[in-house]
Each structure stands twice: as structure tokens, then as C-alpha cells.
Write a structure and sequence with these properties.
The chain contains 13 helices and five strands. By secondary structure, it is α/β, with parallel strands linked by helices.
Length: 267
């Protein structure tokens, strides 16, 4: 397989990571596009190791942390699209947390991507976990038709300090539960028991209120094509508890950040 083919193979996961950092499909894809432009202009940046995926994420991280792209000066921020300006630079601890817990990189690969040593990666992940767990407890609605998976998710989110408002197996049940108690976050499978879609259920709910949504699917590549509006937060089945924890923390973090910006704007 050629290097270009390997890049294409890993691109959906880079896009997932990028949107987890920014909280936005548009902003995340802007950084990914900048990464691909760099690869075209500097093809030698890939192939420095046998791990093309790690190399790809390392190039992305260089772009992400660069002054010119992230716009750390007032003039640079002014020139960037609004969606990118709103996606503030994610601190290094949260980058380490997502690389390890969401993308499943080894400590060694995460250290290479971030340009730090392995012991620092461990410290950064621990720090991020403490920061992201603070003041983020909320009510969570689970939309999942497989009982064992639903039980695992319920135990997991309650272990993180959240409260589960209910578990829905169908689109109709989801709407009914949300009307009884409005959730602060939704975890939704995409294919449900009665043939209905978790996407449709969520769209029904979002007509009444805004809430962060995390979709869970066995086929994430089908929803990371760039051909239509995509879920901002996506977890692949079978999932690891650390993945779910990382994405929940990110979704709630961006929700709280948006609320703080709104409060400052109206103050």
C-alpha cells in the first residue's frame, strides 16, 4: 500500500481527533486541510518511522501548535474564519488525553506525536483527567437498543459522576424520555431496535433544545466522509471505557466554553 493510500486510510481518525480538539466539524477539518497541504508541500515529513498514522498525527500537531495557524496574535486571529478562532488552542494535557484515550496511541507514540517524553505523557494524561472531571456532572440520556451495551454505558457514565435519566431503545422512547426530563448530554447508537435511527431521534430532540450529542457506531468511517454534515463526537464500537470518558469530557467542556462565551457577550 502506498503512503498516500495509508494517509487516506487514517484520515477519518485524524478528522475525528481534530473535531474533538475544536468541538466543530468545520474547524477540525480546517486544521486537517492545513495538514494535508503541508504533506503535499513537504512529503518528506511522512515516512520518518514505520508508523504512518503516528507520523500523520505528528504533522497535524505541528500545524495545530503553530503560531500562524492557531493565531496566537491578535492580527492572526482576526484573519482566521470565525469557527477556527472559536476553537481555542487545546492545552497539551488534553491533547495527550485524547491521543491516548480516544485514538488509542501507545504512550511512546503519543510522546513522539507531541514531542515530549513518555513520563511527561503520563503526567499530562493524569492532569487532563483531573481537569476534565471537575464541575462537569450532568444528566445523560442513553439511546441504545443492545441491553448489555446500555448497561455498560450506564455503569460507566455513573462511575464518572453523571446521572442517567433513562435508556431508550427506539426513537419514540427517546423523545418520550427527553420530554420527561431534559438531558444535559445524549449518548446515541445510530441503528436502533425497531429499525429507526438514532440520528433521527436526536434530530427530533434538537428541535426543542440544544444539547451535546455523542454517537456510537460500529461503522464510524461511514459517517466521516466529509460529504454531509457529520456528528461532532463519534465513538466506534466496540468501545473502550477510556474512549467514552474522553469524548464525554470533551463534549461537556465545549458546551461549558460556549456558555461562558455567551455570558461574556451578554454581560
Amino acid at each position: 500500500m502506498s503512503t498516500a493510500q495509508l494517509v487516506v486510510q487514517h484520515l477519518p481518525y485524524l478528522r475525528r481527533y481534530a473535531r474533538a480538539l475544536t468541538g466543530s466539524q468545520v474547524a477540525g477539518d480546517a486544521y486537517v486541510a492545513a495538514t494535508l497541504e503541508t504533506l503535499v508541500n513537504e512529503p518528506e515529513t511522512l515516512g520518518r518511522s514505520t508508523n504512518v498514522k503516528a507520523d500523520l498525527f505528528r504533522v497535524f500537531t505541528r500545524i495545530w501548535n503553530s503560531l500562524s495557524v492557531n493565531g496566537q496574535t491578535e492580527q492572526a486571529q482576526h484573519d482566521l474564519p470565525a469557527e477556527v478562532r472559536l476553537g481555542q488552542i487545546t492545552p497539551l494535557p488534553r491533547q495527550a488525553f485524547l491521543l491516548s484515550c480516544l485514538e488509542g496511541f501507545s504512550e511512546e507514540d503519543a510522546a513522539t506525536i507531541l514531542g515530549v517524553d513518555v513520563s511527561e505523557v503520563r503526567d499530562l494524561v493524569d492532569e487532563a483527567g483531573r481537569e476534565l472531571a471537575a464541575d462537569m456532572a450532568t444528566e445523560i440520556l442513553i439511546i441504545e437498543d443492545e441491553p448489555l451495551i446500555a448497561m455498560d454505558l450506564e455503569a460507566l457514565v455513573e462511575g464518572l459522576g453523571h446521572n442517567v435519566t433513562g435508556v431508550a431503545r427506539t426513537r419514540t422512547e427517546a423523545v418520550k424520555l427527553a420530554s420527561t426530563k431534559r438531558p444535559g448530554l445524549i449518548l446515541a447508537d445510530i441503528q436502533l431496535a425497531d429499525g429507526s435511527s438514532g440520528l433521527d431521534a436526536v434530530n427530533d430532540l434538537l428541535k426543542s433544545f440544544e444539547v451535546p450529542v455523542i454517537f456510537i457506531t460500529a461503522y464510524p468511517e461511514r459517517f466521516l466522509t466529509g460529504e454531509r454534515p457529520e456528528p461532532a463526537f463519534l465513538i466506534a464500537k466496540p468501545f473502550q471505557p477510556a474512549n467514552v470518558s474522553a469524548v464525554i469530557s470533551q463534549a461537556l467542556f465545549f458546551q461549558q466554553s460556549a456558555r461562558r462565551r455567551e455570558a461574556r457577550a451578554t454581560a
